[in-house]
Design brief:
Number of helices: 31
Oligomer: single chain
Low-confidence stretches: 1-11, 392-399, 431-437, 772-785, 842-849, 872-883
Helix content: 40-55%
Largest sheet: 9 strands, mixed
Length: 911
């Protein structure tokens, strides 16, 4: 059935439904572009003003459940009105200061909230796919939203098609078009059909927006973008996910509402009892101070502050300056990541870098490094090794172990100053097909030093078993059985150290009949070893251990079944013994029921296909594990499904990226945009500096736990401090022993609490997060700490500390105003002490002394600053030497508080 789509046009926007009917030259003329250099700069500027944004993917909706329902809470509005009246009618000077504190306090919180929400929207940008376009002949890496009609776009495997485009050239292109035709179709740039309205699935020279390149690469000209794209016109919805839909926000919003109600009730109760016990003026004073405490508690903004805590904990800043190698683009994954118990990592990019390096060579019975001073000693071995795969005649690179090994040979030759051209000039490559089905090794014929030699490379044990001689001092000598055993033992030692070992052998050829190539693999002369390693950072072992300490077991996927991979997993602490390893062959031969029961105990999976990996991850999830999966390729998306899975995408494009173009003008892929969009977290590949891979996964888990620990600590702090302030104000109202003013309570809450909470949000909590073993915690649910219980503990410590200070002031004969000032200062200093202790998350003796010193300094600075600026806080109490006496009197509370926390910690440790 033929369909023709009509749509309303915008001014200056060229739209056709049947772009496939245009040849390349006519299309470029129509869209004012060059099929080699893309759009010119002047055309780009013109189209930016006339073309709509290419929004084929809607922005992920944000959860606003944590945001206050009103811009100005009712209690804060009531307090502001009363303070304004007091300032004008009662001529109360401190009312103006209190009003300023209230306004500035809420303004600061809303500013923090606005910045946090802006940062969250920047995180969502990582969900928008990027694309390589050629403009003015220069490749650029841009957001798909910035694609313009007429852009020359380069696409490769894993890319998401950003618009409807006409294919100009392609190389083995297959496109997954579930949104158009429901399958994966072969594309053909040369396809030509002049029929009007041909069904889109039959337009073989077209690709359509939101499709995924499953194989090959191509160059396209952007035809329909944004609202004109076929999927948008057909009303096909893209999958949406709430990137900020975090359960923590809902919990905090509920907590805030309940806390607000409790504050209102306490204000009413305190005022009512004051009415029963005092005269009218005292009632107004009691109401004002209790209302000040309720407002300063930020009860309606606790949820907003938790939002800020999350963003401060995970926001990476500028992608170019992201040193952690982690972007948590989906905040809703934080809860899953915090409770993750296993992480499945690919060996390449997750643990090792995606290449192989030659570290040593063994020849002429000597072990040598591939450095220039050893060039002549290693030249023969390099010639033979490189010749075994025919130099530049090797097959196209596909990231397999074999071709990575070949690259390691050529890289070693380059380090030694031996050019590939020099080797190829004397090379006579043999066909790499298996003659008579008997050939086992990579074999070639080379003319070296005026004689023909057969070059053979392969498994060390198999090569050595076919050798009858070995090279010694440049000449072949007889290889005895003892010598053969020594060579095999040497190869096994290298492999046990996680090296990849390739054995090289040769023989003098006296035959010109190359069809007898099976003969070439017998009676060989052992030339030496290429000893290679898949590089990984020295910090990988520490990252694996850190994950283990946190209760997250590391599981390694490797495509090969080599001994080196097994030894690598063992050396890094991933796989302790053979019982924790499973190969594809063992899975095929085993009873599946037994394997599924043991699945969570396996740590190394070797040689599995993507379908088998999917079976493994599903079995682990069914066993109750909460897993994270690190993916690098397009097919890894299938592993990332499931409510209990955290998806980590390996990408080298966290920041700006300069695209690499091959000699045919096609884009060389470094990452998968489809994988990035489907993921929760983006990490960089593993490198030598300790960034990316397993290190990035460890840091991501630490980030998630740090966020929750910081929110937990902030709520403990706020609950304890607000409770202390309510008790003090109640005692003040009922007994009249000391009089606390609204200005003091607002300062204690809106200034000190806000700064303290921000410092808690920014604290690292590394030790607290590293030692939080989720496996052990799951076994001790009944002993798990609760925020309310912890808050009650700190509340008790703080209240006793401040009460002792108040008692000391009364015993010294200070009047009500002076005692109130002393209690206020003691309260502030105790808040500083509580912030210091709670944010650290640990209470060692040395840490306690450091904390006490910091408290003393902060207390002295704050005390002098307040006394110098606000006389109403201290009145005549600050005359003469009384200021120094007051400092020491006010420090009674924080010293008692710190000592009480320390004693409590010691008692818990003894239990």
């Amino acid at each position: 059935m033929k369909t023709h789509f009509e749509s309303k046009q915008l001014n200056g926007y060229v739209h056709e439904s049947d772009w496939y009917r245009f040849d390349a030259d006519r299309l470029c003329a129509k869209l004012n572009t060059d099929k080699e250099k893309g759009l010119r700069e002047d055309v780009i500027e013109q189209k930016k003003t006339t073309n709509p944004k290419n929004n084929i993917f809607d922005a992920d909706p944000s959860s606003r459940g944590n945001v206050p329902k009103t811009v100005w809470p009712v209690l804060a509005g009531l307090l502001s009105a009363l303070l304004l009246i007091s300032g004008f009618v009662l001529k109360d000077g401190t009312s103006w200061f209190s009003l300023i504190l209230t306004v500035l306090g809420y303004a600061a919180v809303y500013a923090i909230l606005a910045l946090s929400m802006r940062a969250a929207s920047m995180l969502e940008e990582y969900s928008v796919p990027n694309v390589t376009v050629v403009r003015n002949g220069v490749p650029e890496w841009i957001s798909q939203r910035d694609v313009l009609q007429g852009d020359l776009i380069l696409l490769s495997e894993g890319d998401i098609v950003p618009c409807d485009g006409r294919i100009i050239s392609e190389n083995g292109l297959f496109v997954l078009e579930k949104n158009i035709s429901g399958g994966s179709g072969k594309k053909d740039a040369a396809f030509a059909d002049k029929t009007v309205g041909l069904e889109s699935s039959n337009q073989l020279n077209m690709v359509f927006a939101r499709s995924i390149v499953s194989a090959g690469s191509c160059r396209i000209i952007a035809c329909d973008v944004g609202a004109y794209a076929l999927c948008v016109r057909r009303g096909i919805k893209s999958k949406k996910g709430k990137s900020t839909d975090l359960e923590l926000f809902d919990k905090m919003a509920k907590f805030s509402r309940v806390y607000s109600i409790c504050c209102s009730a306490l204000v009413f109760i305190i005022t009512l009892f004051s009415f029963l016990l005092h005269d009218n003026s005292a009632v107004y004073s009691a109401f004002l101070i209790s209302l000040s405490i309720a407002v300063s508690s930020f009860c309606e903004l606790a949820g907003a502050l938790s939002y800020a805590a999350v963003i401060l904990g995970v926001f990476p800043g500028d992608g170019k300056k992201n040193k952690s190698g982690v972007v948590i683009k989906n905040l809703s994954s934080l809860e899953r990541m915090r409770r993750m118990t296993s992480v499945f990592l690919p060996k390449n990019s997750g643990i090792c870098q995606n290449r192989i390096e030659t570290e040593l060579m063994f020849t002429n019975e000597r072990e040598l490094a591939p450095v220039p001073e050893n060039t002549e000693k290693l030249r023969r071995l390099v010639y033979i090794a490189v010749s075994t795969f025919g130099g530049r005649e090797r097959h196209a690179k596909k990231q397999t172990a074999q071709t990575d090994e070949q690259d390691a040979f050529t890289a070693a030759a380059s380090r030694l100053g031996i050019s590939l051209t020099e080797i190829e000039s004397s090379m006579i490559p043999l066909m790499l097909s298996h003659a008579h089905g008997n050939r086992m090794f990579e074999t070639s014929l080379v003319y070296y030093k005026e004689q023909y030699m057969v070059c053979v490379r392969g498994n060390a044990v198999q090569i050595i078993s076919r050798c009858t001689s070995k090279l010694s001092n440049g000449s072949p000598v007889y290889l005895s059985e003892e010598g053969r055993r020594d060579l095999i033992a040497r190869a096994e030692r290298y492999e046990s150290e996680a090296y990849r070992v390739a054995a090289i052998a040769s023989k003098i050829s006296k035959y010109n009949n190359l069809n007898q190539s099976d003969y070439f693999e017998d009676e060989l002369c052992f030339e030496g070893f290429f000893i290679m390693r898949e590089p990984y950072s020295s910090s990988v072992e520490g990252a694996v251990a850190a994950l283990s300490n946190m209760g997250v077991q590391t599981v390694m996927f490797c495509d090969d079944t080599t001994t080196q991979s097994v030894n690598l997993a063992r050396n890094l602490g991933i796989c302790r013994d053979a019982t924790q390893k499973l190969t594809a062959l063992e899975l095929f031969k085993s009873n599946l029921n037994i394997v599924e029961l043991k699945m969570p105990s396996y740590r190394l999976f070797c040689g599995f296909s993507s379908a088998q990996k999917k079976y493994i991850t599903d079995a682990v999830i069914d066993a109750g594990e909460k897993i994270g999966v690190v993916g690098r390729h397009l097919y890894d998306i299938s592993l990332m499904n499931g409510e209990q899975t955290v998806a980590f995408a390996v990408s080298s494009t966290l920041g700006s990226k300069k695209p690499e173009i091959d000699e045919n003008g096609f884009y060389i892929p470094e990452t998968s945009e489809a994988l990035k969009r489907a993921s929760d977290v983006i990490i960089t590949p593993a490198d030598k500096k300790g960034r990316g891979g397993v290190n990035a996964v460890m840091k991501a888990v630490m980030m998630s736990r740090k966020v929750y620990n910081n929110v937990y600590n902030a709520m403990v702090y706020l609950t304890a401090c607000n409770a202390v302030r309510f008790v003090l104000s109640t005692v003040s109202v009922f007994t009249g022993l000391f009089r606390l003013t609204p200005a003091q309570m607002l300062f204690s809450g809106m200034v000190i609490d806000l700064l303290a909470v921000l410092s808690i949000f920014l604290s690292d909590n590394r030790e607290m997060s590293e030692t939080e073993d989720l496996m052990k915690r799951a076994e001790k649910k009944k002993q798990k700490k609760r925020p309310l219980l912890s808050a009650l503990t700190y509340f008790g410590f703080a209240l006793v500390s401040v009460a002792v200070t108040a008692a000391a002031a009364l015993l010294l004969g200070l009047d009500g105003v002076q005692t109130g000032v002393t209690v206020f200062a003691a309260l502030v200093f105790t808040q500083l002490a509580a912030c210091r202790q709670i944010s650290r998350g640990r209470y060692g003796f040395r840490a306690g002394l450091t904390g006490l010193f910091v408290i003393l300094v902060l207390a002295a600075v704050e005390y002098f600053a307040l006394s110098a600026v606000f006389d109403a806080f201290f009145t005549s109490y600050m005359t003469g030497g009384a200021s120094f006496f007051g400092i020491f009197l006010c420090l009674i509370a924080p010293v008692i508080f710190t000592a009480a926390v320390r004693i409590g910690y010691i008692l818990r440790r003894k239990k």
